Amino acid sequence: MSLDADVRRLAGARPLDKLPREALQLLAFSCQKRSLRQGEALFSAGEAAEGAFFVLEGEIALRRDETERRAGPGALIGEQALLAETLRPADASAASDSVLLAIPRETFRRVLSEFPAGAAKIHRSQIERTRKLVAALDGVKRRSFAPPA
Prior knowledge:
Structural class: alpha+beta
CATH class: Mainly Beta
Radius of gyration: 17 Å
CATH topology: Jelly Rolls
Shape: globular
Low-confidence stretches: none
Helix content: 40-55%
């Protein structure tokens, strides 16, 4: 897959969609591709997350407790790890032969420092998503603690 194709795919994933094309080109060029064979582990729950993975080809199975989700081409796995130190909440392994772009947090931060307007857009987007989450949680709280009718 070409650098241009990688950049087009990256542009479709949140929060990368807030960055200008030049930032995505730098990111795609700076990050390493990682190939996994079907069944090979990507990471385990509880591990420190040093960054995110962008699925270029194949499919990744994410397992937590008894629940499994699949992430295919165009999916960004571990978005929060790009912005903050966190632990992996699930196990991840290749459901099929896969190619991923490993995006280390430090590389992402360096790209943001080169493109401050894009960084500001991501920051605003995170604030808005947090506001919506808090509002949704507040609604659940009100319904859960409402006196019986």
